[in-house]
């Protein structure tokens, strides 16, 4: 992994750097580009605009690694309030939610996270929408897949995420490319050791294409989460090759990243879902975005300097 990326990802876990970034004037402009506000009301307003542009959405209430059951409970309550609000605004048909199990208590107790995820999924079912479980660092992969398997026994529509940078992922894709399953394929956003993850970008891209082939030739519903123009071109060709009709798979991109491309693909009739994070705990999420792309870091530094 390139040293700058490792450094920024290491800073994502530092309380001192978090405080520094949060209190630096100019940060809020950068946060606003990637994060859709602090509250449910703000997020739902922004989402309404995306839906007006024929985009689909998955909403993520920011927060990870809770250390107290009460924090996990607060996360559940926020998701339930969010789902009610989406239903009330008539948005639930186009807007689902993404959930990090660590924010539901995974590191405290897997059973607690499963019970909390059940409550969020039951709320989503009542509102007529779906849930996708985000994937976090490799120490949580097995537990996340176990919880996903449990939830899918009741709700086969619960989506999972697989990360192309993990060496194990092709096997996981094979297990999940089954009827009704919704699988988001991404490159992977965490600092991982060489034993478990490919470190060279080219190896990750090759793994992404191998996994995409498996998903497109399988019976599930693939959700391709990437901004990479080369991969998007390959995916379009591969989808045609496997006889996939538009709507039998989707593209996903992050809020604030390549918005013109999101609209271009939607204009061509593709299903495009935007991953929209909101909430006060934006720091680790923002740092992962900065680590992904030097241009994001430059944008951040320019915003600070231009104050
Ligand atoms: P990169 O390798 O970052 O970039 C490749 C190319 O894409 C660049 O060279 C450039 O041409 C283009 N590009 C990238 N960013 C930009 C930009 N800002 N502006 C213009 N062009 C750009 N990771 C997880 O670990 N777990 C998850 O659950 C998860 N969920 C995700 C959900 C969604 C919808 C998305 C889009 C990503 C998610 N990720 C997740 C993050 C993902 O793993 C990658 O870290 C992230 O998407 C960057 O990889 P990339 O495929 O976009 O390409």
How far apart are the termini?
32 Å
Number of domains: 1
By helix and strand content, what is the structural category?
alpha/beta
Over all CA atoms, what is the radius of gyration?
Answer: 18 Å
* Strand order of the biggest β-sheet: 3-2-1-8-7-6-5-4
Percent of residues in helices comes to: 40-55%
Order of helices and strands: HHHHEHEHEHEHEHEHEHEHH
Pathway: Amino-acid degradation; L-proline degradation into L-glutamate; L-glutamate from L-proline: step 1/2
EC number: 1.5.5.2
Organism: Amycolatopsis thermalba
Cofactor: FAD
Would you give an account of this structure?
With 307 residues, the protein is an alpha/beta fold. The chain has one domain: TIM Barrel. It is built from 13 helices and 8 strands. The protein has helices at residues 3-11, 15-23, 27-34, 40-52, 69-88, 110-127, 141-154, 169-176, 201-217, 229-241, 259-267, 283-292, 294-305, and strands at 56-61, 95-99, 131-133, 160-163, 182-186, 221-225, 250-254, 272-278. Strands 3-2-1-8-7-6-5-4 form an 8-stranded parallel sheet. Helix 5 links the parallel strand 1 (56-61) and strand 2 (95-99). Helix 6 (110-127) crosses helix 7 (141-154). The longest helix has 20 residues, at 69-88. The protein is globular and about 50 Å long. The two termini are 32 Å apart. Residues 46-297 form the Proline dehydrogenase domain. Keywords: FAD, Flavoprotein, Nucleotide-binding, Oxidoreductase, Proline metabolism.
């Amino acid at each position: 992994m390139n040293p700058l990326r490792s450094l920024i990802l290491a800073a994502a876990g530092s309380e001192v750097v978090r405080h520094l970034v949060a209190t630096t004037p100019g940060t809020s402009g950068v946060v606003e580009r990637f994060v859709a506000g602090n509250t449910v009301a703000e997020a739902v307003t922004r989402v309404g605009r995306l839906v007006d542009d024929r985009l689909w959405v998955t909403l993520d209430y920011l927060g990870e690694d809770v250390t107290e059951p009460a924090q996990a409970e607060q996360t559940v309550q926020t998701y339930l309030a969010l789902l009610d609000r989406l239903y009330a605004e008539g948005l639930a048909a186009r807007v689902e939610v993404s959930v990090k199990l660590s924010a539901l208590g995974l590191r405290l107790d897997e059973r607690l996270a499963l019970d909390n995820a059940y409550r969020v999924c039951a709320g989503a079912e009542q509102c007529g929408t779906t849930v996708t479980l985000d994937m976090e660092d490799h120490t949580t992969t097995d537990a996340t897949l176990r919880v996903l398997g449990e939830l899918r026994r009741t709700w086969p529509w619960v989506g999972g995420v697989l990360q192309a940078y993990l060496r194990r992922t092709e096997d996981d894709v094979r297990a999940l490319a089954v009827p009704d399953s919704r699988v988001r394929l991404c490159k992977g956003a965490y600092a991982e050791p060489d034993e478990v993850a490919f470190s060279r970008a080219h190896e990750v891209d090759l793994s992404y294409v191998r996994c995409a082939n498996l998903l497109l030739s399988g019976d599930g519903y693939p959700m391709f989460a990437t901004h990479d123009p080369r991969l998007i071109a390959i995916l379009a060709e591969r989808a045609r090759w496997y006889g996939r009709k538009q709507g039998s798979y989707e593209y996903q991109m992050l809020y604030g990243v390549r918005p013109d491309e999101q609209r271009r693909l939607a204009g061509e009739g593709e299903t495009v879902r935007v991953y929209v994070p909101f909430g006060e705990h934006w720091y680790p999420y923002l740092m992962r975005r900065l680590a992904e792309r030097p241009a994001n870091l430059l944008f951040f530094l320019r915003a600070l300097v231009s104050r």
